[in-house]
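Subject: sequence -> C-alpha cells, single chain

Hey, anyone have a minute? Need the predicted structure for the following. Not urgent.
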Amino acid sequence: MKFKKVIAIIAVASMVMGMTAGCGSQETSPATDSTAEESTEETTETTESTEETETPAEESAQADLAGTEISFLNSKGEIQAALEEMAVTFEEETGISVEIIACGAGESPYTKITSAYNSGTAPTMAMLDTTDVVALAKEYAVDLSSEKWVSECENQVTKIDDKVYSFPFCVEGRGLIYNKGAIEETLGTTFDPATINSYDSLKKLLEDLRAAGMESPVVISKEDWSLAAHQLGFIYDTYDGTTAGSTELITKLKDGSLKVEDYERFEQFLTTLDLLLEYNINGEDPLGALYEQDPIFLADGDAAIWANGCWAWPNIADAGASADAEYGFLPFVLGNDTADFANNGIQASASKQVMIDAVQATDVQRAAAKEFLNWIVYEDSGQKMLVETAAIIPACSNNAYAALDPLGKDIQGRLESGKVFSSSFIAPSDHWSVLGASMQKYIAGESDKAGLASEIDAYWTSQK
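Reply:
Had a minute. Here:
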C-alpha cells in the first residue's frame, strides 16, 4: 500500500473532503488542463445548437446587470476551483460578479443554507441536494417554471406542486468504480465488466483477485454521507428504479406498514455490503479510513473497486490516474437475478439542484442569477466549461459536449443506451448524518443486522 502519497494529497484535503452526492464530493481540482484564458478565447465560438441572436432589449438587459454582485453556495467540494474559473469567464462576458462560496468539508448543505437564512446572509444561489430543495423551496426559492431552460431538461427537473423551483445542475451516477487495468494486471486476463451482474459473479471476481495476490481489492469509505446516502440509498432507489417508487417505499417505512428487516432489498444490500467489507482494504480500522487515501488505493492498483460515484473522478485523477485509463462502473449488485434492473444498470439522476433566493436577494440579483443559469445552458463557453472544466454531466439535452473523464464517459454512455435507473430518493436532511452513524457502527462491527435494522426502522417511524 502506497501511503507515501498521502502527505501530498492531505494538503488539499480541506477542499477535498465532504460530499453527499453532496457537501463534500471531496477534491479540489478541475478535470481539465484548460486555463481560464483559453476558456475565454473559446467563448467567441458558438455551436449550431446554441446559436442565438440577441435582441436589442436582451442586450440592454445584460448591460443593466453589469456590475451586479451575486453569490453561489457550492456543495460539490471537488469542483470549487472549476466553479471559480467559470465565474471568472462569466464575469468577463457579462460583467456580473459571482462569488463561489464553499460548503465546508463534511458540512451538511441543509445546515449551511438554513444557517445563512437565519443570519441574514443567504447566497443568491444555492446548490443543494434534491431533498433539501423539496424541504426549502416553497419558503425560500424563486419559481423558475417559466424559464426557457425547463424545456431543455424536462426529464430531469424536480417539480413541487407542479412548479419548478430549481435548476438541475448535473446528472450523477454511483455504483462500484472499477480499475480495469488493475484487475487485468492482477488476473493476467481480459476483464469484461458486463460479466458482473449478480452477487455470485462479484464474489468470484473478488475471490480470484485475492487468490492472484490482491489481498484487499475493495475500498469502503467511512464518511456518513457515503454510507447512508450512496450505499444505504440503494435500498430505496432499487424499489422499482423510480423516484416515485422510492417515495412509496419510504411512506411504508414511515407508517410502519413495512419493517426494513422484512424488505428483500435490505437483505440483498447487506449481503453484498458484507461481501465488500470482507475484502475492504480499510478493514483493520474501517472508521480510521482517510478519504484522501481511498482513491490512491484504486489509482495505484492496491485495490480494484471503490464504492462511490462519478463525482470521485477528480480524487482519482489527483491520485495519479490518467483520463485515458479504463475506469468505469459495476452495479452495486443485489441478489443473483441477472435480469434484475439493479444488476444491469447504474443509478444515475439529477442529484444537485440550484435554487435562487426569493427572500433576501434583490430583484437585480435574481435577474443576474437567472443570467448565470442561462449562460450555463445556452452559451457555448458555459456549456463547455460545465462539462470540460467542472467535469459535470449536464442535465440539459441541448449540451452536446462529451465528458472527458472515464467515469463521466461511462455514465453518459449508459444514459444513451438506457442502462441506468433514475430514482433519486428523497429523505429528510438528517438522513445521512443519523443513519450514516448507524452504518458506521455496522461497518466497524459495533452493530449487527438486527441492530442496524432497528435503527433504520426507528428513524423512519419518527418521521411521521
